[in-house]
Amino acid sequence: QQVLTQNGFIDKNDLYYPFEERGLQFGDGIYEVIRIYHGKYYLLNEHVERLYRSAESLKLKLPFQKSEMYVYLDELLEINQISSDAKVYLQATRGSAPRDHVFPDADANLYAYAQDLARPLDKLENGVATITRPDIRWQNCYIKSLNLLPNVMMKQEAKEHGCFETILHRDNVVTECSSSNAYIVKDGTIYTHPETNNILHGCVRLRVKKLVKDLNIPFKEEAFTLSQLHDADEVFLSSSTAEVMPITKVDDTVIQDGTPGKITKAIQQAYEKDAG
Ligand code: PDD
Fold first, then answer.
1. Best of 179, 183, 196 to mutate for ligand 1, by most ligand atoms within 8 A of CB?
2. What cofactor does this one take (predicted)?
């Protein structure tokens, strides 16, 4: 398997890092997870744009210009002969240097690799259960940073409750989930948290916004509360790996009859068409 690095492509088995890697010691870096359907990137521009926005927010200088990044990411799929459903994981850190909180005089480290990833068809059809927890993350969740400890803790807690995701709230206002964006449907209107610093500006969220506009379904970027969540007609989440995923249970509350809602299904259909 060939991995893209700041120095070009190298074999996975030849990829080593010094122990003083800022990604490891400080979580001082950013990442992207990009979806691939039938060997082709989906929402690539959106992911690359967000990567550069995250880098700028952290004053992290990426090793490539944007235009070079596109060329290398295409090469990554070609070299590894990716033709199926897959994902690319890309991360960039502030480099390797003797440990010091202050920025080092080092070049960024970057790697990106492709991995097969099947669509979660069973969950997409039947929906998933969730729990709710306080959003204990920092104030800059729009940055796709490597610091995922709260997200990891909350996702694990979901799993321990037999659930797929944890829906997060700040003072009873729902922000998003541990690794996806959250939505409700009430009286035919979709609600989701606005693109503030308190959520990751999801690439699929952006596409959902466009798809529902084409479907003439009202879409309000207005935060909703925990009680609105439990009282919703439909609930769903979105991410590059989970797609548009129906939520049929929130804590002990079964949403309506416990099956995916009509509007959620309509968006799923539009998404499938869009993703080809
Ligand atoms: N997670 N919110 C959070 C906190 C996320 O980590 C993600 C993505 C999303 C959805 O973003 P997008 O639609 O661009 O995938 C929302 C990725 C998939 C991950 O960490 O694995």
1. 179
2. pyridoxal 5'-phosphate
